[in-house]
Amino acid sequence: MLTVHALTKIYANRFDTQAGGVRDVAFDLPTGTFFTLLGPSGCGKTTALRCLAGLEEPDAGRIDIEGEPVFDAGRGLNVPPERRDIGMVFQSYAIWPHMTVFENVALPLKARGTPRADIAQRVSQTLETVGLAAMAQRSATKLSGGQQQRVALARCLASHPKLILLDEPLSNLDAKLRIEMRAEIKDLQRKLDATMLFVTHDQEEALSLADEVFLFDRGRVVQSGSPRDLYEMLDVAARHNVKALTERFKMADANEAIARVKKSKVRYRAVLTN
Ligand SMILES: Nc1ncnc2c1ncn2[C@@H]1O[C@H](COP(=O)(O)OP(=O)(O)OP(=O)(O)O)[C@@H](O)[C@H]1O
Ligand SMILES: [Mg+2]
Fold it and tell me: Is the dihedral of CA 149, 155, 156, 158 positive or negative?
C-alpha cells in the first residue's frame, strides 16, 4: 500500500499561488498498482516523484510506503532515500559515465551487499530485458540517448524494489522501441508485484499502461481514475466542447485526441479487460 496524504512542496513562498511545486496531493494505492501522473510541463510531476523518493523535503503531509511511514511533517520524520526500498529512473537518466553498462546496473546491488554471483545473474537478466545484453562491457559514454535511458531503467529494476518511480523513462526512444519497452515494463511490474509510478506527458501512454491515472495541473491533482474513467471524461469534454480542459492538457483539437485514443482501441480494450 502506498499512502500519501496532503503532500505539499512549494518552491519559494507557499502563499504565492503562482509558485511551482505540488499542493495537497493524495494517493491511496494497493500494492502492485501501476499508476501514472499525467500533465503538461511544469505541473509538478517530477516534484511529486522526488518527494516520494526522499530527494525533496515536503513542507507538509505524510507518506507511507508498504505501511512504513517514511515522511511525516507533523512528527518531523524524514527517512533518507537509501532506506526507502525504492528504484528510480530520473528524467535525466543520471548514469555514471566512467563505468561500463554492467557496472552501472550492478551499482545499487553492490551497495546493498548482494553476493557477486547473484549480482552477475540479476544484471545479465535485466540487461536482456531492456535489450542491452550485448553491450554489458561497453563504456556508458559510448551509448546513444536511448541506450542510456535503458541502462537507467535496468539499474532501477535490477534490485527488485517494492516501489518503482519512473520519470518519463521512455522519452528518448523511437516510437517502435517505446511501445516494446512499455510492454516490458508492464510485464516486469506484474512479475515483481511492485507498485509503479510512471510519469509522462503522453496521454496515450498514460491511458494504455495504468491501473489508475492522476491528472496534474498547476501542482494539483485535478482528476483521477481508471483509464476508462479518464477516457469517458475526455469524451464528455470533447462532446461538450470543454475547451479549458483540453487546452490545458495540450490537446489543441479534442476530437483528434479522442480519435487517437479510439484508434488504439484494441490495446485500450486489452487494458480494460485485464
Ligand atoms: N528547485 C526548484 N526551485 C524552484 N522552482 C522549481 C524547482 N524545481 C521545480 N520548480 C518549479 O516547480 C514547477 C514544477 O516543476 P516539475 O519539475 O515538478 O514539473 P514537471 O511536471 O516534472 O515538468 P516536465 O514535464 O517539464 O518535466 C515548475 O514551475 C518548476 O519551475
Ligand atoms: Mg519533470
Answer: positive
Every domain of the chain and the residues it spans: 2-85+161-273, 93-160
Q: Is the CB of 56 under 6 A from ligand 1?
A: no
Ligand 1 nearest atom to the CA of residue 37, by list position: 21
Query: Which whole-number Å values give the CA distances from 259 to 234, 238, 251, in the listed order?
Result: 11, 10, 12
- Determine which residue's CA is closest to atom 13 belonging to ligand 1: 20
The alpha carbon of 222 and the centre of ligand 1 are apart by a number of angstroms equal to: 17
Task: Please provide the DSSP assignment of 181-235 as one string.
Answer: HHHHHHHHHHHHT-EEEEEES-HHHHHHH-SEEEEEETTEEEEEE-HHHHHHHHH
Count of beta carbons in the 10 Å neighbourhood of residue 121: 12
Per-residue pLDDT tens for 138-193? 998 899 888 888 899 899 989 888 899 999 988 888 888 888 888 888 888 888 88
Taking the centre of ligand 2 as the mean of its atom positions, its distance from the CA of residue 17, in whole angstroms, is: 20
Q: How far apart are CA 80 and CA 78, in angstroms?
A: 6
Q: How many residues does the chain have?
A: 274
What is the pTM assigned to this prediction? Answer: 0.84
Superfamily of domain 2-85+161-273 in CATH is P-loop containing nucleotide triphosphate hydrolases (3.40.50.300)
In terms of Cα–Cα distance, which of 207, 221, 218, 222 is closest to 263? 207
Residue owning the nearest CA to atom 26 of ligand 1? 41
Q: Are strands 2-10 and 21-29 parallel, antiparallel or unpaired?
A: antiparallel
Compute the distance between CA of residue 89 and CA of residue 124 in angstroms, rounded to an integer. 19
H-run or E-run covering 242: none
